[in-house]
């Protein structure tokens, strides 16, 4: 039973880390879009 909980915890950790990476990439994409809008307005 303890081994199953350990694997569950590892699985949850992997999902959380991948979600952080995805949000980081999304933030970069939004930032690039904002920069293009600023450059177009100048």
TrEMBL record:
One of its GO terms (biological process) is response to toxic substance. It comes from Salinicola corii. Keywords: Cell membrane, Lipoprotein, Membrane, Palmitate, Signal. Belongs to the EcnA/EcnB lipoprotein family. One of its GO terms (cellular component) is membrane. Transmembrane segments: none annotated. This is Entericidin A/B family lipoprotein. InterPro entries: Entericidin (IPR012556). It comes from the Bacteria.
């Amino acid at each position: 039973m303890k081994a199953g909980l350990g694997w569950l915890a590892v699985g949850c950790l992997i999902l959380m880390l991948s979600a952080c990476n995805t949000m980081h990439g999304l933030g970069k994409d939004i930032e690039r879009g904002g920069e293009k809008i600023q450059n177009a307005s100048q």
